[in-house]
Amino acid sequence: MRLSHRLFASGSLMLLLCAAGCDPPGKPGPAEVPIEDVTDFHVLFDTYCQGCHGPEGKRGAARILNDPLYLAVLPRQELYSVIENGRPGTAMPAWALKYAGPLSEKQINSLVDGIENNWAKPAAFSGASLPSYYTQNSGDAAAGQKLFVRDCYMCHGPGARIGSVTDAAYLSLITDQCLRTSVIVGRPDFGMPNYRNLNLGRALNDQEITDIVAFLSAKRPPEITAMYESARIQPGQQTGATGAHENENGSGQTGTMTKGDEGSGTGPGSPQQKKREGNTSGSSQQGVK
């Protein structure tokens, strides 16, 4: 009898303890922070950037961002400008509120700071002479052809295993700046070496990089090159929602800028889209150069 009383008492105590740990019915949970007020880098990147640039900024369709060499070469203002203005003519949208995107200046700065604080390693390049992000001189296409045949043809010549970069159709979809960036930083997440190992195991110098780009650019259809030239702006120049901006991942054409909520991380099925549809029914390829 005593044993049954003890068991009953123990069971009652357990029920009381369980009940004490539960919230009463109807008690509101913690307030959800509106996405427009979020400044946490990881939340912002996962929501808006990883759809194109990949988890942790690599292995995505667009340019790798988690690359210390790339961030050592890329000017901070250029990184900010691309997020703010997007790249007209590509899938990289303008994310700034002033261009109908979802991000405030504070949030864009949080993204830039987070990318640099998490993935840049400035100490590794202290005192190093790095190639310029922007072209400084005119290129020599003939010299570039010799370098291409020697250093690039095995992977990127016609019929090569990685894919031809001398095809006119391909070159019509890519700018000289994208070509230059690709030669400088490669794609370490996919095994493409950077400029430091392309010259028969030695580094290409700045002029040699420019010459390779000049060789490839000369194979682009003249009318496409003319379009790029007409859309080119000076490094660091700001543009409006319909302004020209030479882009790295597609055509340099001018026109209406893609809005931020049409790009990666906020399209159908995304947290932003679900939030917008909450009371009624319940991103994407190219990015920062």
Summarize the structure.
This protein has 289 residues and is mostly helical. It has helices at residues 2-20, 41-48, 50-53, 68-73, 76-85, 105-119, 141-151, 153-156, 168-171, 176-185, 206-217, 222-231, 271-276. 41% of the residues lie in helices and 0% in strands.
Structure characteristics:
289 residues; mainly alpha; Cytochrome Bc1 Complex, Chain D, domain 2; single chain; 13 helices; 41% helix
Rg, alpha carbons = 25 Å
Strand content: under 5%
Helical residue percent?
A: 40-55%
Can you summarize the main beta sheet? none
CATH topology of the domain at 37-128: Cytochrome Bc1 Complex, Chain D, domain 2
Q: Which overall shape is indicated by the principal axes computed on the Cα atoms?
A: globular
Find the count of extended strands (DSSP E, 2+ residues).
0
Low-confidence stretches: 233-247, 249-287
CATH superfamily of the domain at 37-128, by name, is Cytochrome c-like domain
Number of helices: 13
- CATH architecture descriptor text of the domain at 37-128: Orthogonal Bundle
Separation of termini? 78 Å
